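Input record, target 12 of the design panel.
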């Protein structure tokens, strides 16, 4: 029996009200697959950085949020979503289409990619062909260059972002 038949048999045993959960789970898995397939098609090499991840997350935070006080971060729920620094307008950034256009043209041979609440960072090599629409289905994703001169953020909120910001000055 092929996998699809096995899945259909399992679906037939579920009550109708559970099928909505199955749909959204399959939708999520499909988006992951399509994102990976798109990266592969563009020749992007993805390396998971386990040991360096915490340092890279701190580097992002230092370069893009260092002028924001801990009190302000707390008041905007920064620990819930780092991108609140942009949605609450605590840091300057480009928004929406201007952010997309900036990301599309910036140099990005090697970039770091991290997700909110994920314990690791990825290095995307050979990433020059990536554009903003490649990340439209990615939620709460933070992309930045190896020198931390810019960051591109796509959120899970349709009315927030995407955002493109440059490093905070001294």
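The sequence produced for target 12 reads:
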């Amino acid at each position: 029996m092929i996998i699809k038949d096995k899945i259909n048999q399992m679906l037939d045993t579920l009550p109708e009200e559970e099928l909505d959960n199955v749909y959204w789970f399959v939708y999520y898995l499909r988006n992951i697959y399509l994102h990976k397939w798109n990266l592969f098609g563009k020749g992007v090499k993805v390396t998971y950085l386990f040991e360096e991840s915490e340092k890279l997350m701190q580097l992002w935070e230092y370069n893009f949020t260092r002028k924001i006080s801990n009190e302000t971060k707390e008041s905007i729920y920064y620990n819930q979503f780092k991108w609140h620094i942009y949605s609450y307008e605590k840091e300057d950034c480009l928004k929406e289409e201007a952010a997309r256009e900036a990301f599309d043209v910036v140099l990005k041979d090697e970039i770091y990619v991290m997700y909110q609440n994920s314990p690791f960072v990825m290095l995307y090599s050979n990433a020059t062909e990536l554009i903003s629409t490649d990340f439209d289905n990615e939620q709460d994703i933070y992309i930045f260059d190896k020198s931390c001169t810019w960051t591109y953020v796509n959120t899970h909120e349709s009315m927030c972002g995407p955002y493109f910001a440059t490093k905070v000055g001294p």
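The CA atoms of residues 8 and 14 lie 10 Å apart.
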